[in-house]
Design brief:
With 265 residues, this protein is an alpha/beta fold. The chain has eleven helices and six strands. Strands 3-2-1-4-5-6 form a six-stranded parallel beta sheet, sandwiched between helices.
Length: 265
């Protein structure tokens, strides 16, 4: 990537890159459990109440997120399409059963809880960083989340997208080439005129293989590759722009904007 010859569009992974999915879901689970356990009207079997009281909702959220990762990694594009929202609901039901929490929530409450993925909190730098980058680029989603989910999230988190593109549009899931190539075509661009911004090297590697430029933004607890794999990727140099994680709130997308010469952030 040449800063003097930048891409025409920045396409953003969303889960973990734009929003802090694990923290948001952990908080949603903990709140929902606390409300039920402290409700005077809720009839919860004692074994379930005991199990819920000792459950680590952070660990539960990680398992839920891992189920999502397995779903998209093993999805067969030749089969009838299943949205991420549908898959999240199914995996929640399975996880509740596996963790012996059946009876803590009603079916209606479980459906509502599964839709918390539509309303995730952005990283602190996200709103300002996207607004800054929008001064110079088209900024679009390119997420495995379905269109309804991404639209809800954009309204909730005030994300100023130029356009919302979803893997649902191409009936496949990243890292399938169908998604990256389909997104570039939808924008009327070549893959070389697009850059993917992501906190996951596996996603960036898939985009790079079809000609995308790549921008890696480190986020806390998001990278699925091992430290050795991350270091190898750094040395191999196929990531065009690498933004290290800062504890302060002025990194992330704000740092990406500064690298492109956008000072008014």
């Amino acid at each position: 990537m040449s800063i003097s010859n930048p891409p025409k569009a920045l396409l953003f992974d969303v889960f973990g890159t734009v929003v802090d999915d694990l923290k948001s879901i952990t908080n949603a689970l903990a709140t929902a459990a606390s409300e039920k356990l402290n409700s005077g009207s809720a009839s919860i079997p004692d074994p379930v109440r005991i199990q819920a009281s000792k459950t680590s909702w952070g660990d539960f959220a990680k398992k839920w997120n891992e189920a999502y990762g397995k779903f998209v990694a093993t999805y067969d594009p030749s089969t009838p399409f299943v949205t991420v929202s549908e898959a999240q609901h199914t995996s929640l039901l399975e996880l509740v059963e596996a963790e012996k929490l059946n009876g803590l929530w009603t079916p209606e409450e479980l459906l509502t809880l599964s839709r918390k993925w539509h309303f995730l909190d952005p990283w602190p730098d996200t709103p300002r960083g996207l607004a800054a980058l929008k001064q110079k680029f088209q900024i679009c989603t390119l997420s495995n989340g379905d269109t309804e989910l991404l639209t809800d999230m954009a309204a909730y988190a005030k994300l100023p997208w130029t356009r919302i593109l979803s893997a649902e549009d191409f009936h496949a899931y990243k890292p399938s080439p169908l998604v990256y190539e389909g997104a570039a075509k939808a924008l009327g661009l070549t893959t070389g005129e697009c850059a993917l911004v992501a906190a996951h090297l596996g996603d960036l590697q898939g985009a790079s293989k079809v000609g995308y430029q790549t921008i890696y933004v480190e986020r806390a607890h998001q990278e699925r590759w091992s430290s050795a794999e991350v270091e190898r990727a750094r040395k191999e140099g196929w990531v065009d722009l690498w933004v290290v994680r800062k504890e302060a709130d002025d990194g992330g997308f704000l740092e990406v904007a500064r690298r492109f010469g956008i000072e008014r952030c």
